[in-house]
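User: Please predict the structure of the protein below. I'd like the answer in structure-token form so I can feed it into my own downstream comparison script.

Assistant: Understood. Taking the following sequence of 170 residues as input:
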Amino acid sequence: MKKQHVPILIIGNIVLVGIISFLFSFYFVENNKTSIFYVDNVKLFNGFNMSKDLGKVNNKKIDQQRKKMDSLYTVYSIFSEQKNEEKAKETEIILKKEDLELRRMNEYFSNEVSQQVWSRLNAYIEEYGKTNKYTIILGTQGNGNIMFAQEGIDITKKVLEYANNKYEGN
């Protein structure tokens, strides 16, 4: 009689393990479907009001520097045409200094300002993710990091709206 109970217990255990495995995998898959999202980093950065504000300020400075260089180049051209080598040489030295300043300004904007913006955005994204109980928010730049995603998991627009509201103090 004992031998007949052993196969039933084994079959019962196998069925029980199968049911538990199915329920666990179903729960795990369902949670992952709703907790992994992504944002388009380029759209997020370009649409973020802080980025726009800092861009306006820095672009104004860069444009002023370009105008200054254009004027200096015009003066340099006049001196060169007049064969005034001494004044042309002096202007050329000033032009080189101003060109270096323009490069420094461009580098500052592309590095330092971008870092400030991303620092703020990352804090907002983390807060948004925690508030919405997301497991992962991935970032993509539209160049192959995420090749396919189901419709509805791109939350760029929502995160951008959230970040801009936070930035504006709302």
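That's the full token string. The beta strands are 36-40, 136-140.
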